[in-house]
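Before relying on records like the one below, remember that each one covers exactly one chain. Contacts with other chains, cofactors or solvent are not represented anywhere in the record.
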Amino acid sequence: MNATDRTDQRLTELEIKLSYADDLLDTLNRQVAQQQQAIDLLMNEVHRLRQNQAESDTPGFRSLRDELPPHY
């Protein structure tokens, strides 16, 4: 095997590694985008729940003693 063949082989191996790295990067980017959408939805839901609780007449604090069953 001469130097040109070895260089071609190394170049081919590098191109293969690059294509795998590109595919992995695209996959990770999609995953991060999906996770960010889920985080945004959850943040909006928490915000909505906090607004609903602030608007309701019931107090936000409840004693744990009020939660105990009557036999305690």
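The first helix runs from residue 3 to 55.
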